[in-house]
Amino acid sequence: MSLHELVGLNLCDLMLDGVLNSTENAIKWLRKFGLISQERICHKCGSAMRLGRQANTADGQSWRCRKKECKTTSSIRKHSFFSRSNVSLVECIRLIFLWAEGDNSVGKICRYTKLCNHTVIDWCGFLREVCSEDLKINAAPIGGPGQKVAINETHVPRRKPGNPSSRDESMWRRKRSVQNFFPEILEAIKRQYTL
Ligand SMILES: [Zn+2]
Question: 64 CA distance to ligand 1 centroid (A)?
Fold first, then answer.
């Protein structure tokens, strides 16, 4: 499913589509666009895993190995951008949307998401890091925007808190002659986080 379908979308559409109504819907939506794993292989035995309910996890679902003797479980967030935090996936989507609008203050994002100041600042930093990395990837000789390329190890983002620069974010936004940065940032996340 292409993220370009999301051009022209607003927060209201996301709500009307039910994406922001429940974690379950948010998970379906993120899987549809390949932002969290669509399938998973057990790292212990190599069998296919099944996504199922898991009451004791924040997301209410997790992967479980189909093999009876194994039954290893694995977080739905593993390897994804969302593994950086345990903020609910509904709030993550809402926050990314509000960030993408570009003119929302931290205070406004807090009010809309009911997340605390500290969390919103952290998330804006994570998104800024995606912008910085995206600028590097697109500047690299291995490929250009819109081209499918194998991303070299050196271009994989640092998972440690980096030094996200607001200048990179502005530059990243300027390089795109679009009105809606939501699909653009989701594409960039998808490129950087190999599931
Ligand atoms: Zn297994």
Answer: 8
